[in-house]
């Protein structure tokens, strides 16, 4: 395998070699992995892909490695759930949930980007990997570093949910909590990357890391029977995932694996950290950084690295963006759980609630296919719903107590 030509500046188009670089030295634009699409086209078909193992690496020709993956080879191929109960509730015809809350090994879509990043870091010869994280990325880097025999350092805002902190520390990594928000953590990590020469998944090897997100889009299309969805609703933090879902659909069309690629991209944020959706709604091309204030910590980035390009991708697709309050996102979590039996984290609550809002605004047509992107697991952000759901009824272990419970229940129901 190995169809990577090199890196290319997204802004000025200048070519760079396959190295741990992420910024254009001429115009400071972001670098992106560039492939030999003509060669890939000769190599893969729907049939070759379908015959492979059900993991994200079944699309390996479109991923940024020169050799076979060495870290996270079992990641991906999560369920695409036909969400008929939620569809009925929302009044839409064809609705799906792409459920990365059960991704292996750490229950979020970040397992995809980390598998790509750490496999690439090993190809580059790095011994130490690291990241700036809002939670899920740290979980995944820590877990997959263990698997890849790499040393790891995880830097995160000190106020993250217990499930996210514990879900990192358990792997025996170096966890560092930073006072303040993610944007400060990210700035610090850029300095550390330069000084210590580690592979920061989402900083100096970001172009390779970000490519892993495409597999979320490839899988949606394959699982729909090699058909691109008409509408997809995506939670946005740095804005990378939404761009890469758009890129995934376009690549499959370019390779002749699908006919249509007119998927509209809809971005979802929490109102307390909504620089991207605010720009889209204001018709602005540029991000105005904000200071995050929301319980949706996993997507609370005030100065998103891919903000500008995510706005562009949304506009070019004919989509839109919205944001919701913390109360609305909690209702979104409960709605998905009570209709589809899927317990998502705060980011998923945002995505469900934004979908509802965009339907009410008639931005998303009710008679077209819609995919809701569920990217993380609710067991990691229990604080968000504590006290917002019913508590168990406590009884003695006797049939009399149980009978009394049933009677009381019926009397409440009546
Ligand atoms: C990181 C993350 C996202 C979005 O990531 P981008 O930075 O926009 O690519 C969405 N959902 C969850 C749960 C995340 O952890
Ligand atoms: Zn450039």
Helices, by number, come to 15
CATH fold name of the largest domain? Rossmann fold
Molecules bound to protein:
pyridoxal-5'-phosphate, zinc ion
Number of domain units: 2
Alpha-carbon distance between the two ends: 66 Å
Query: What strand order characterises the main sheet?
Result: 4-5-13-10-11-12
Tell me which CATH architecture of the largest domain applies here. Answer: 3-Layer(aba) Sandwich
**Radius of gyration (Å):** 21 Å
Low-confidence stretches: none
Name the overall outline. globular
Class computed from helices, strands and strand pairing: alpha/beta
Q: Let me know the average pLDDT.
A: 97
Percentage of residues in strands: 15-25%
Please provide the ordered H/E string of secondary-structure elements.
EEEHHEHEHEHEHEHEHHEHEHHEHHEH
Top CATH class of the largest domain: Alpha Beta
Taking the sheet with the most strands, its summary is: 6 strands, mixed
Number of strands: 13
Helix content: 25-40%
Describe the structure.
It is a single chain. The protein has a 6-stranded mixed β-sheet, with helices on both faces. A 4-stranded parallel β-sheet has the order 8-7-6-9, sandwiched between helices. A 3-stranded antiparallel β-sheet has the order 2-1-3. The protein is built from 15 helices and 13 strands. By secondary structure, the chain is α/β, with parallel strands linked by helices. Helix 10 links the parallel strand 10 and strand 11. The chain folds into 2 domains: 170 residues, Rossmann fold; 199 residues, Rossmann fold. The radius of gyration is 21 Å and the shape is globular.
